[in-house]
TrEMBL record:
Membrane topology of the entry: Single-pass membrane protein
Matching InterPro entries: Kinase-like_dom_sf, Leu-rich_rpt, Leu-rich_rpt_typical-subtyp, LRR_dom_sf, Prot_kinase_dom, Ser/Thr_kinase_AS, Ser_Thr_Kinases_DiverseReg
GO MF term list: ATP binding; protein serine/threonine kinase activity
Stated name of the protein: non-specific serine/threonine protein kinase
Organism: Chenopodium quinoa (Quinoa)
GO CC list: plasma membrane
SMART domains according to UniProt: LRR_SD22, LRR_TYP, S_TKc
PANTHER family in the cross-refs: LEUCINE RICH REPEAT KINASE 2, PROTEIN KINASE DOMAIN-CONTAINING PROTEIN
């Protein structure tokens, strides 16, 4: 039926999900002038019958799944002005007389196919051409002279095998000298050799120059500053030398600048800061020196900046971090940057990737990094960062984190096992204590901790030594042969948090059953240890005090900055009541997951007050979530009741007035809670 429409002049069926072959009956549409069937799913070969449409000026078959060779009859349609066969699976060679048989052609595209052979020399005879697209094929050899294409505005021959390994490969560009309206010149990823042609500066209409991934030599000409309409300039992965022209800052319309992978030297011109529309700047893999210009902070549209693998030195200018537009990547790795990482880094709230690795940065990792809430990839390895891993790195979106080869110390933070990390590299630092086992730590191929000689535990595949919880030899001077007492732990509490009930029995023993009362003075989470049987021990008696009639040993009168500081800092004497206070705060900390020093406890609010005010409401809201994760409904009510009772004991122990604190009965009350909890659970299980 379609073939009977002999008077039809325009047939437009683009973007309709059409399938099957092109019907040969189209050849009967003798009046057809325009045929548009692009963006469909047509298969098979191009029907040779289309070659009978002598009035056809436009043939658009772009973006289908057509295969085979172009029928020779198509090239007999001398009236064609537009021929678009791009993005198919067509093959073969372009006919040598193409330009002679299609003299009126204005738009010609066979991009993204499988064509082989050379670009026909006759192409220049299609002198009306404005668009010539031959990219993404298997064309080879030299590009013929194009001197007759004076109307050319868009020239794309990227991703072929063009070029003859000759220094005169770019001579064809000289033949375009009369194409003064040329706007797009794209020869990316070919085999072109030769010196960067200065004639570029004569094409004042150019807005896209893309010459990446070739073998171009010479220097970027200073006259490039004349191309005032230039928006994208790419010469990455060539062999260009010399400096970046200082006048490049005059290209006010520039949005993309790709100079990576060359042999450029000298400094980064401060004038680049004038490019307020610049969105992508890649200068990596060159020989650039000097400091990163602070003027880059004026490039308010920048979304990606890559300065990797140069010889840049000095500090990172804080102005760089004012670029809230940075969202894709900031890569400063592989340079000689020094000093600390500015706190202003926290302003990069939209950044996806930050790479500062392989520099000489020092100081502590700024806590302000925690404000970079969009970060997925953070690489800070091979620097001189020291201190501990800050809690602020608890960034929920992190996928990869590299802190390797630094001078970091302390424990591995527990929050790292809660993140959805796929790769974590903490190797070659000074980290110590037990390696977590959940999250990324349960994947030996995703976590790297070697080179930390004080680490222990972790999953067996990491091949770390078992953790030893031996206690300080100083305790051996005490009267009793056993210095630390094992503490029963609430059975059924998730193993993620096994230390909810611990030192009460030990403190009771030290306070009341050692002759002279022994005051620990430094009870805190880091002084609670678990052995292989998950039994808790109280350790580190470095601040221990003996209290007895006529005995007051002041040899350890200096208090450390721990939980007990507030108790002793307000002028209270060292006493067993101070240990009770510390124990109460410790219970609150372990059950709620909050620390007394957290930022939320400001303006008079304390951990004690926070729990006291909220305990009457929904107790679940103040519990550490890891305590209730994975608890089934059978246990949940009993667990909440037990934890509520323990919070009440903790509040009684940590009240401000020493006389109102629980003393000798703490361990008894905890035992009562434990026995009730276990008994109730056992009865419930029997009913089930």
């Amino acid at each position: 039926m379609l073939g009977s429409l002999s008077r039809l002049q325009v047939l437009a069926l683009k973007k309709n999900n059409l399938t099957g072959n092109i019907p040969s009956s189209l050849g009967n549409l003798s009046s057809l002038v325009e045929l548009h069937i692009s963006l469909n799913n047509l298969v098979g070969s191009i029907s040779a019958s289309i070659g009978k449409l002598n009035n056809l000026t436009t043939l658009d078959l772009d973006s289908n799944k057509l295969s085979g060779v172009i029928p020779p009859s198509i090239f007999n349609l001398s009236s064609l002005t537009e021929l678009d066969l791009g993005t198919n699976n067509l093959e073969g060679e372009l006919p040598s007389d193409l330009g002679n048989s299609l003299p009126h052609l204005q738009y010609f595209s066979v991009a993204a196919n499988r064509f082989t052979g050379h670009i026909p020399t006759s192409i220049s005879n299609s002198s009306s051409l404005t668009v010539l697209q031959l990219s993404l094929n298997n064309l080879h050899g030299q590009v013929p002279p194009l001197n007759k294409l004076v109307n050319l505005t868009l020239f794309r021959i990227a991703q072929n095998f063009l070029g003859s390994d000759h220094l005169r490969d770019l001579i064809f560009f000289t033949s375009l000298a009369n194409a003064t309206g040329l706007q797009v010149f794209n020869i990316i990823q070919n085999n072109f050799k030769g010196v960067f042609p200065k004639i570029f500066c004569n094409f004042s209409s150019l807005n896209v120059v893309a010459m990446d991934n070739n073998f171009l030599t010479g220097e970027i000409p200073y006259c490039i500053e004349k191309l005032s309409d230039l928006q994208k300039f790419g010469v990455g992965n060539n062999i260009l030398s010399g400096v970046i022209p200082p006048g490049i800052g005059k290209l006010q319309k520039l949005t993309d600048l790709y100079l990576y992978g060359n042999q450029l030297s000298g400094v980064i011109p401060p004038s680049i800061g004038n490019l307020t529309k610049l969105s992508i700047l890649t200068l990596y893999n060159n020989h650039l020196v000097g400091q990163i210009p602070s003027t880059l902070g004026n490039c308010g549209s920048l979304i990606a900046l890559a300065l990797t693998n140069n010889s840049l030195s000095g500090c990172i200018p804080p102005q760089l971090f004012s670029l809230s537009s940075l969202s894709i990547a900031l890569d400063l790795s592989g340079n000689h940057l020094t000093r600390s990482l500015p706190e202003e880094v926290g302003q990069l709230k939209n950044l996806d990737e930050l790479d500062l690795s392989r520099n000489m940065l020092s100081g502590q990792i700024p806590s302000s990094l925690g404000s970079c809430t969009s970060l997925e990839y953070l690489y800070m390895g091979r620097n001189y960062f020291n201190g501990t891993i800050p809690d602020s790195l608890d960034l929920k979106g992190l996928v990869e984190l590299d802190l390797s080869n630094n001078n970091l110390s302390g424990r591995i933070p527990q929050f790292l096992q809660r993140l959805k990390l796929q790769s974590l590299d903490l190797s070659y630092n000074n980290l110590e204590s037990e390696v977590p086992v959940d999250g990324v730590f349960n994947n030996a191929s995703g976590v790297y901790v070697r080179g930390n000689n004080k680490l222990c535990g972790g999953i067996p595949e990491l091949k770390l030594p078992q953790c030893s919880y031996s206690i300080n030899n100083q305790k051996r001077r005490l009267k009793h042969q056993k210095k630390v007492f094992t503490v029963a732990i609430l059975s059924g509490i998730p193993p993620k948090h096994p230390t909810l009930i611990f030192g009460a029995f030990s403190l009771d023993y030290l306070h009341n059953h050692c002759g002279a009362s022994i005051v620990h003075c430094d009870l805190k989470p880091s002084n609670i240890f678990l052995d292989d049987e998950m039994v808790a021990h109280v350790g580190d008696f470095g601040l221990t005090k003996f209290l007895s009639k006529g005995i007051n040993d002041d040899s350890n009168s200096n208090q450390s900055s721990s939980i007990g500081v507030r108790e002793y800092g307000v002028g209270n004497e060292v006493s067993t009541s101070g240990d009770v206070y510390s124990f109460g705060i410790l219970l609150l900390e372990m059950i709620t997951g909050n620390k007394p020093t957290d930022d939320m406890f400001k303006g008079g609010l304390t951990l004690h007050g926070f729990v006291r005010e909220d305990l009457a409401g929904d107790v679940v809201e103040i519990l550490d979530h890891v305590l209730v994760e994975g608890i089934d409904s059978t246990d949940s009510n009993f667990l909440l009741e037990a934890l509520t009772s323990m919070l009440e004991i903790a509040l009684s122990c940590s009240t401000e007035v020493p006389a109102e604190r629980l003393e000798n009965i703490v361990s008894a009350k905890l035992s009562s809670i434990k026995n009730k909890f276990l008994g109730t659970r056992l009865q419930q299980r029997r009913r089930i």
